Amino acid sequence: MRRFWAALLGAALVAGCGSREPERVDPADHDAVFLWAGVPSSAVPKRARTVYLLAGEVRADDPGRLVSLRPGTPKGSGMSLWYTVRVERLDWEEGVYARVLADLARWREAGNAIEGLQIDFDAETRGLADYARFLEGLRRRLPRDYDLSITGLMDWSAQGHPAALARLAGTVDEVVIQTYQGRKTIPGYEAYMASLAQLPLPYRVGLVENGEWRPPAGLARDPEFRGYVVFLLTRPQAR
């Protein structure tokens, strides 16, 4: 609780300081990026060491099929890769689990350094308990040498039930907190970021390329903070 109030005070001080203007997020300044299916690999900055690749989707109209968005096998020389699935429903049929595990094995057999599986699901804060149950079932199927990552909303830590958050902490290895909507940073993110002190698991902060960002006071000192992930847009950045 002491960590929460210290962070909240720091966010208030930063938000009230008019002398520091937000900067634009440049992927070239970061070593972890998220690559949507339509974004060319040429957009990945040279210093990137971790890449989250959107590989497929489980769509609302079909719980029995993984829609492939990246049919080829990536070549992540010199970097770690995450296999990301965009999810619209949680009642997967067993064939979807089998396909995901087979793809992970195929990517690794091709010589890639695979960190693990990431689930991108817009779980409402009030639905975190149901989401935690799904993730527990997924974790049981996932080989232990793969980590499990999820994307998350900023208000999870502020409004999420402590018991549901604790279940997440016992299941996933990290959460990437999304601070943007569409192509813009969500206004007032400083107050949300302060509440991350209540999140009981390691997290990264997801930024949108070219979005405004001013690091909240104390963020870099939070022991659970693991750095940033820049979500790339469709236009490759100039070198």
UniProtKB/TrEMBL annotation:
InterPro entries: DUF3142, GH
Pfam families: DUF3142
Superkingdom of source: Bacteria
Cross-referenced PROSITE patterns: PROKAR_LIPOPROTEIN
Protein name: DUF3142 domain-containing protein
Species classification: Bacteria, Pseudomonadati, Pseudomonadota, Alphaproteobacteria, Sphingomonadales
